Amino acid sequence: MVEVGYFARIAKLSTKETAQIEGGGCRFAAWRRRGDFSSAGAPDHLRSQVSGQMWLNIARQAHEIGLRSNATMLYGHVETEEERVDHLVRLRELQDETHGFVAFIPLAFHPDNTALSHIPKPTGYADLRNIAVSRLLLDNFEHIKAYWIMLSPSIAQIALRFGANDLDGTVVEEKISTTRARKRPNLRRG
After folding, report:
1. Is the predicted pLDDT of residue 161 greater than 70, yes or no?
2. Alpha-carbon separation of residue 182 from 19, 106, 113 (angstroms)
């Protein structure tokens, strides 16, 4: 959705016109938003590239023209628990209106090599609690995904018992958390 907002701005088109560009690869809007619906108190470098309300409007317009999309929420950095709940409630309301979301993917913030490296990483308990609360509040989403690359394979497996019904992370090139040096689990046997 961020990308649609950006291209609409530079092309001087509406977001709906931009999403409808023939051959633009917009059959399924798999874009993720960067930031939270509430950026109150966030440092400038963490503020979303588009506002939360603008993101919701772009998603609404994409859904109105038949595009389906995923929704995400980055948690474990500067937001409050109330802001997390507000984020989920807004997604729930838009899903009730459009039925356009395929999945919700909570994304744990990893502070290593960021301006927020001084804050602790989300714990496995926090990860599982976010999955569980997401499932309870977003019962109108067909899928809640556990993104094992950010959770770890073991927490992602447990998340399947806490409300997730899909694992995500089979990717060719992971760019959400690879901007920092991080060891990945070796899942090959032998």
Report:
1. yes
2. 35, 19, 10
Residue type, 102: V
Cα–Cα distances in Å, from 48 out to 38, 55, 115, 161? Answer: 9, 10, 15, 32
Backbone angles phi, psi at 28, to 5 degrees: -135, 120
Q: Is the pLDDT of residue 122 over 80?
A: yes
Handedness of CA 57, 58, 60, 64 (dihedral sign): positive
Question: Whole-prediction pTM value?
Answer: 0.73
Eight-class DSSP state of 45: G
152: left (phi over 0), alpha (psi -120 to 50) or beta: left
Give the pair of three-digit tokens for residue 18: 């931009």
> Under a CB-based contact definition with an 8 Å cutoff, are residues 87 and 55 in contact?
no
Alpha helices in the chain (DSSP H): 2-11, 15-19, 52-64, 81-98, 124-137, 148-151, 153-159
pLDDT in tens, 79-93: 899 999 999 999 999
| DSSP state letter for 51 | -
